[in-house]
Write a structure and sequence with these properties.
With about 100 residues, this protein is of the alpha/beta class. It has a domain at about 1-70: Uridine Diphospho-n-acetylenolpyruvylglucosamine Reductase, domain 2 (2-Layer Sandwich), CATH 3.30.43.10. Helices cover about 15% and strands about 35% of the residues. Strands 1-2-4-3 form a four-stranded mixed sheet. It is globular.
């Protein structure tokens, strides 16, 4: 888990605006989330979760904690002749997932 202060979040947003987060944490596993919870990170300040395909427009610096959820994974929940129901973690890259499902 990577914890950064005064972090430029430009590469983590779709619009690529030059703004900073007071704290920025890359979460790459469920264990990371449990650790953050146990250490009180999720209680003390304003917070926001960003997934990989996040279409959010920041117009100013974020005075709080941003969690960049990089937890990847997907599984088929149900499959019929008509549809496939997937459970997809927020760290999956949406365009690649769509391409994979279309094939």
């Amino acid at each position: 888990m990577l914890i950064s202060e005064n972090f430029c979040i430009k590469p983590f947003t779709t619009f690529g605006v030059e703004v900073r987060a007071q704290q920025f944490i890359v979460v790459s596993s469920i264990d990371d989330l449990f650790e953050l919870f146990e250490e009180g990170f999720l209680k003390t300040k304003p917070r926001m979760v960003l997934g990989r395909g996040s279409n959010i427009l920041f117009t100013d610096h974020y005075n709080g904690l941003i969690l960049s959820c990089q937890i990847r994974g997907k599984k088929v929940v149900k499959e019929t002749d008509d549809y496939i129901l997937l459970k997809v973690n927020s760290g999956e890259y949406w365009p690649s997932l769509v391409d994979e499902m279309v094939e």
